[in-house]
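User: Run a structure prediction on this.
Assistant: Running it now.
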Amino acid sequence: LIDGFANKLAELLKELPRDFHFCSLGYGRPKSAPIVPYSETLGIPSMIWYLTGYILSEAGANYLLNSLPVVGPVDSWVGLRMTIRNWDNEFGVKLGVGMHARPHIDLLPAKKKHLAKLLEFRAFCALSPLCSQRVGNLPTIAARNWRQRDTDIEYSGY
């Protein structure tokens, strides 16, 4: 957890819509998967991996239960719910989710009410991660090289 975690979490919770399903506090994501700014502390992810830390509402748990079965690793499966349910539409195509190294975030509607209409799986994330997976001091050279080779992924780790 980052320093001042409780205070930063309280700030995030003030901005999190009451009807949210999921909010990631730490994550990895492909560089071609943008996070659309939603507020000062929140973003709307187009895809994340690694459930490093998250908040799941009761509605979110029910949404995921209704989406069973899980296919593959659960963290990737949750990330795919975001992509398939939120961005497999005209806005996702305009944005270039999964297609461009530098997606076109400026093409999305800026107003929260328009963005909220896109979200079937109401997933958000902390723009500045509140927790991370330690990536330094991995036990083997192979393990260290694994993260270094993933140059197309951004981690909330350090």
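The chain has a mean pLDDT of 80.
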